[in-house]
Amino acid sequence: MDPKCQCLELNDGHFIPILGFGTYAPEEVPKSEALEVTKFAIDVGFRHIDCAHLYQNEEQVGQAIRSKIADGTVKREDIFYTSKLWSTFLRPELVQPALEKSLKNLQLDYVDLYIIHFPAALKPGEELFPKDENGKMIFDTVDLCRTWEVLEKCKDAGLAKSIGVSNFNRKQLEKILNKPGLKYKPVCNQVECHPYLNQSKLLDFCKSNDIVLVAYGALGSQRLKDWVNPSYPILLEDPVLCAIAKKHKQTPALIALRYQMQRGVVVLAKSYNKKRIKENMQVLDFELTPEDMKAIDGLNSNVRYYDLLFISDHPDYPYSEEY
Q1: Does the keyword Magnesium apply (predicted)?
Q2: Are 207 and 183 in contact, with CB atoms under 8 Å apart?
Q3: Residue 196 bears catalytic tag
């Protein structure tokens, strides 16, 4: 990795840049924009790119990475690229083909990190959200320990440098950590995390097991119609965050991102606005005081923007537990 890059060491010896660029965009955003903004993000210094099969833009994001390698801006080893295994591919026999499909779309030889996107399995097939005639999600039953064993094989085969999970609660993590014959621990757990849902208990649990917490939704949420509870307060309008921002002459978004970094959390900054993408890099240039950190800790109110209630009756739905 680039020596300028501020990184954390993962439990398998690889390094992850502490600031990542999130590439998800709502359906109405043209796919071509993913190409443009990812190239721009690399130009302004982002080296960690977070994507997923679910986002349906890996082709464009891969193209952006390859064009920045071709023009000499970066080498492949400077980039830390994450992809995710979607819920319709959790059956063991579907795991490696799903990763190979992502690699084919990306036109890359390997991903730096491959993670289980969500612990609740859905019916396999072309549909990302398979529904029955009443519009109800069709679930699948998969033992995630078996899924994990195939991820371990993908790491051994060199298709993924590191493997991890996302949206797992403590019990689900423990299931993998306590699996007989475990070869590799998950290097990370990527979860929604921001001052209103600071995940301090899950963070402590992850740290105690040498698992890095990666924060998505770190700026609260874009108001995505099907995904997000619209009645919640807007994080970036919070008076405490705004006051700290004013004091440091930074934006509330930068305060929210910096907060995660100082807790040892890898943070994803998702924006399709070039001005803000560039601005988000400034998070590396200032520091919050212990008092600031304590004030932001005090905002925790267990507001989960991405509650995914449409699968809340799945036996592996992760958010029924306290953490």
Answers
A1: no
A2: no
A3: no
